[in-house]
Amino acid sequence: MNEPRHGEKGHLLLSFTAIIAAAALFLAVLFLGWTHLAGVGRATVTDGLDRGTGSAIEPPDQSGASGGSGTGAQATVPVAVTVDVNPSRLGSGESATLTLNIRNVTKEPVTATFRTSLEADFTVESGNRVVWQWSRSREVKLEDGRAVLQPGQTLSFKAVWDGRDDSGRVVSPGDYAVKGVFLGQLPGRTLPVIAEPAPIVVTP
Fold it and tell me: What is the CATH number of domain 47-67+75-202?
């Protein structure tokens, strides 16, 4: 069998190198594509809706730290978050307007950043059971945004609850609690800020 001439050897070496380079490029593209897709699941944000009590509620520090420096320590909340319900008594066939107010209580501008189109959310709860959540009927998209609150300025979000649960059934008469959560990321914090629940009574 005749051995390849010098020129043929160079051609074979070049082809082999091209194949290796193409394979490496394919693996890199595959890895980057997988990394991009892995972030899609962030669109629905519900973590923190059931946590905390008190004025300007904030979810507890996941690391167990009570403040100061540390991996899980959260900065002091620079905003006051409240939720209003109007009317607070809901009769048959009526609807209530829910308003989440975020007020800058500092003397400096506060910037909140968002990673999705969902900037705030509301739930109506009976005991520890969520009967209705505003975001469940909304399409949430991945998109970056920001809001700057000047000292004393208030940012408001509104939603309407028609007295039905997530399945579209009219809820039973009784006492319910409305919770509002602000999903903007504040300086030095990674957790959402939750307003103190507001009562609402559903009458026959």
Answer: 2.60.40.2360
